[in-house]
Amino acid sequence: MSDYRLQALARLARLAPGLVLKTDPADLEHYGRDWTRRWTPAPLAVALPASVEDVQAVLRWACADGVAVVPSGGRTGLSGGAVAAKGELVLSLERMNRALDFDPVDRLLTVQAGMPLEAVQRTAADHGLLYPVDFAARGSCAIGGNIATNAGGIRVIRYGNTREWVAGLKVVTAQGEVLELNRGLVKNASGYDLRHLFIGSEGTLGVIVEATLRLTDPPPPSQVMLLAVPELDALMRVFGAFRSHLRLQAFEFLNDRGATHVVAHGAQPPFAEVSPYYVVTEFDAASDDDQNAALAVFEQCLEQGWVSDGVIAQSQAQAAALWRLREGITEALAPRKPYKNDISVRISAIPAFMHAMQDLFERDYPGFDVVWFGHIGDGNLHINVLAPDGMAQDAFIARCEQVTKALSEALVRVGGSISAEHGIGLVKKPYLSGTRSDAEIALMRAVRAALDPAGILNPGKLFD
Which part of the chain is the FAD-binding PCMH-type domain (predicted)? Predict the structure, then answer.
């Protein structure tokens, strides 16, 4: 590290005495990357503030010294949005991880941005309420990162995305100013709602330091069912039948390749016979009528040939085992370093889109192991591609970039999005124009320039 950089870090330490600064190579590697694992981390240092004032001091210093800053939560993203590979300062909010306030009348929970999602959920439960956004990375992702990417997850069909549950935000701008946005109001017609500008902004407009979250009633008792689906076109028919007769909390699917990898990783085999597709669904089951309705819709699907087998959980342990087939996919695939795509289409377009993509993979990418899974109920599909044995990583990524280009072109035709819930980051940046018009991108650039004229916040992410 140059003397100038050392002196700059020394100045930062004096400006923010409560700040923890890390420069150990192992720390730089750990904090400088996200789950993509495609870029070699090379941050200047890692700053861990303990207060809003620390964050203000860091950003004022960064502006004065011209140092780029990468805001960092749990770094569970899949788009390269939290990568620091060009000498940036990583600003990790992990020490700012406490619940600050609970208002039982308004049902609002205010937390620091570094609080893990699972801790937010537990805190809400301690007050007899629910924070409903949920996904498999709940134990390691941070609420600030969830907000910065407008995370969705497995219960969007019932509760919507993160955006619906953010009642207020405290944000530190690139210049070190504090913005308090909306303050938990239900109605606020006093001009632009800047809160929503920062939701999904991927750390490019400001650093989210606190969030005021709406809570809701816990859901009624539920049951989990696993279904074997014999063909792609039947997936939507099953979804339509279940949605018409039951109050769904989740409706998730995976293909046989996903199930194979999770079973190899320790999960129980779903059925004696392998099925091309599986559905994990959870639905309200507070009464015998709900139970009977679930059995009736299953029998209807069985008679129609839309499902070939099914099982309903008889205990919490069985429900967890069924959910593991879906939620264990990312962990099971991680050692193989999959190439990931996270796309969104209208629900009605799913079958045609998946057929087109399957034809593409079979024709142009033989030997590639392709794992499909996702949220049928909101049109969000995850595509994980595994390299054939012996293929070099660089060659594999180059081939997969061709896949992503084909995906992007297909998404343009159906009006979809190249990113459903992980942001654009570095990975999807070349394909932003497939989702956003030139006029939209120009306005986004103008907003970014207005809020961060020095260009220090997460440069290179979203767009150059």
Answer: 39-218
